[in-house]
Specification:
The protein has 20 helices and 2 strands. About 55% of the residues are buried. It has one domain: Hydantoin permease, CATH 1.10.4160. It is globular. It has about 450 residues and is an all-alpha fold.
Length: about 450
């Protein structure tokens, strides 16, 4: 394949811009493209399964839908806002994060993003795609795993232009398949039945916050990559149109499929949520449409992981690591694919998909929420002035990193509620880690920035 940085939008040219600003001559694309970029990767079973967790956590269907909408709305708003930062600076999101965290401090969120996206999310979605492909083709799980990994790493290896086209065109197929699935599920008998609550039973806050936190972790998990996919747009792209396209693409796709999951497993029951292959249980209810749905699930997981492995590599390069290759981004994609693939293999053979996903999503929310709060506050206080120039010549500020560490540690210690650990307040009120982390980080950064001259 030819390497290209001449401004061509060819999908077969290997991208070599890495984390450098995108020159004006290479800018292309339209704001509405971001709707498909952020809807396509969510049209997969991992999204459905987040909604299923609501039933597993003991919520009825109405409570589950409310928790899903709350978590996704909070995530979609900030995702749309951060997406608007790409065209003006032409930089990836984690590079722009240097403005709040400083040169050295940015190593922390960039490193976390590398691990969570390039390895964690890669493994989660690879497991989903592998289970679907194995159920569809009757292939051995390891063979299905290898096929899924090769496809998603190959697309991400080529880079931005191929990713944009893959996400756009697969979104059409996925939208049709999932539209039929949504109709079949929503018109099935009993999917919206609300089980009567016991006399005097209190509102299930623990299950509600766990579901909202998991939904938020899933949807907000895309936000550290937001400007990665808008930095190629022309600088004069309408911020309003771009923000709505990205935010709604993320919110609508996740909300619809999570509600499908809650409705379907409202009938299947909590036993299927925590079963060995919930993917097969779900598609078995779709009759003759189950096969094409399994194919859509496999394609959707690939769409999701193309973004994960690409942005995982970007996050790694945003740490300032020097690699002696012209296409160092592509090299990092391959490395992330190998490590993430090994992690996915362990997940496929573990057989406890539900608890693994629950824990992972809450952990994502614990760090993403404070990070979003800090970069937002920095943007407001600085007015966004010279954001690109400052990110390319960052100072060694301590305000962002200290606010981040304290808020993450405090929110997990006091308000976490998951299988691995329950905080002293999480036991009674459910998992409020993301919410507490966001508020704490915003306040602390505002205070610390005033005392840190380098932050200004």
């Amino acid at each position: 394949m030819a390497q290209n940085n001449s401004g061509s939008a060819s999908a077969t040219s290997i991208e070599i811009n890495d984390v450098a600003p995108i020159p004006a001559g290479e800018r292309h694309g339209k704001a509405w493209h971001l709707f498909t970029v952020w809807s396509s990767p969510n049209l997969e079973f991992a999204t459905v399964f987040v909604g299923a967790l609501a039933i597993g956590f003991g919520l009825n269907i109405a409570q589950g839908i409310l928790a899903i909408l709350v978590g996704n709305a909070l995530a979609g708003i900030t995702h749309g806002i951060l997406s608007t930062w790409g065209p003006s600076a032409g930089l990836p999101q984690m590079v722009l994060g240097r403005n709040a965290f400083g040169k050295i401090g940015n190593l922390l969120p960039s490193g976390l993003s590398t691990l969570v996206a390039g390895i964690g999310w890669f493994a989660v979605n690879t497991v989903s795609g592998t289970l679907a492909l194995s159920a569809l083709t009757k292939l051995d799980a390891v063979v299905a795993l290898l096929i899924v990994i090769v496809l998603q790493v190959g697309i991400a290896f080529v880079g931005h232009n191929l990713i944009q086209k893959w996400e756009r065109y697969t979104s059409y197929f996925l939208a049709v398949v999932w539209a039929v699935v949504i109709y079949m599920v929503f018109t099935s008998k009993g999917v919206f039945n609300v089980a009567p609550a016991a006399a005097g039973a209190a509102f299930p806050w623990v299950g509600f916050t766990l579901t909202a936190g998991a939904a938020y972790g899933y949807t907000a998990g895309w936000t550290p990559f937001a400007s990665d996919y808008t930095r190629y747009l022309p600088e004069n792209t309408s911020k309003r149109a771009l923000g709505w396209a990205a935010g709604l693409g993320n919110f609508l796709s996740t909300s619809l499929l999570m509600i499908v999951g809650a409705a379907a497993f409202n009938v299947l029951g909590a036993g299927s949520v925590f079963g060995k292959n919930p993917t097969a249980d779900f598609t078995a209810t779709l009759g003759g449409w189950g096969g094409i749905t399994l194919l859509a699930i496999a394609i959707g997981s690939i769409s999701a992981n193309v973004l994960n492995v690409y942005s995982g590599a970007m996050s790694f390069l945003a740490m300032g690591v020097k690699i002696g290759f012209k296409t160092r981004r592509a090299v990092m994609v391959l490395l992330a694919g190998v490590i993430g693939g090994i992690t996915a293999y362990l997940g496929v053979t573990n057989g406890d998909v539900a608890h693994q996903l629950e824990n992972f999503l809450l952990v994502v929310a614990y760090w993403v929420a404070p990070w979003i709060a800090i970069v937002l506050v920095e943007r407001v206080l600085s007015g966004g002035k010279d954001a690109g120039a400052r990110a390319l010549a960052p100072k060694n500020s301590w305000a962002g990193a200290l606010a981040f560490i304290i808020s993450v540690a405090f929110s997990i210690w006091g308000f976490a509620n998951q299988v691995a650990y329950v905080g002293p307040l999480g036991k009674d009120y459910g998992d409020l880690g993301a919410l507490v982390g966001f508020v704490t980080a915003a306040v602390l950064y505002w205070v610390f920035r005033a005392a840190d001259k380098a932050s200004k």
